[in-house]
Amino acid sequence: YADYALTKNLQLRITGSVNSRSGRTEAFYNSKTPRGTTRSAFNTKGVNAGIGFNESLTLSNENTLTYTKVFNKVHKFTALGGFSLQEVARNAYGYTTQQIPNENLGMSGMDAGNPLSTSALQAEFSLVSAFTRLNYSYKSKYLLTATLRSDASSKFAKQNRASYFPSVAAGWSM
């Protein structure tokens, strides 16, 4: 993140991140394993194997402006406004085979087995938010806070992609 003091009372904060992940899973069940043995009436797959790949990319950014002002040494007012963005892309795919005739080949013998299942997934979603928060305190004892957040998400129903989330709180410090 980066913080910038624009004026004595106004602070800008910019944060961002990139998260990239990828993975591969393999499972091989030869005739010496409970899931690969033909001696069990519960195993109809015989020697079997599966492989899967997945990858994801997440990008995020948040920018806030914070204004803070103290009046007469007893009134403190803070206003924050911000904008955030998150984008996620994910891919996953894999396949499994059964009745692999030559278990000595291990994973490289999958092509000689009978295809059992394949899977493929491609997903993307995004979230865009705008928010504001107002804080007031009197002598650091009596506290008021009001917040309003607006989120627009590709995960929300198409007819209602955006929604508002308000809140108000009051408190005192004993």
Word description of this protein:
The chain has 174 residues and is mainly β. The chain contains no helices and seven strands. 6% of the residues are buried.
Keyword list:
174 residues, mainly beta
Write the layout of secondary structure elements.
Elements lengths: L1 E4 L4 E20 L18 E24 L3 E24 L15 E25 L3 E12 L8 E11 L2
Antiparallel strand pairs: 1-2, 2-3, 3-4, 4-5, 5-6, 6-7
Largest sheet: 7 strands, antiparallel
* Overall strand count: 7
Distance between the ends: 35 Å
State the strand order across the main sheet. 1-2-3-4-5-6-7
Question: Which range best describes the helical content: under 10%, 10-25%, 25-40%, 40-55%, 55-70% or over 70%?
Answer: under 10%
Low-confidence stretches: none
Question: In angstroms, what is the radius of gyration?
Answer: 28 Å
User: Could you tell me the strand content as a percent range?
Assistant: over 45%
Tally of helical runs? 0
Mean pLDDT: 95
Summarize the structure.
This protein is mainly β and 174 residues long. The chain is 0% helix and 69% strand.
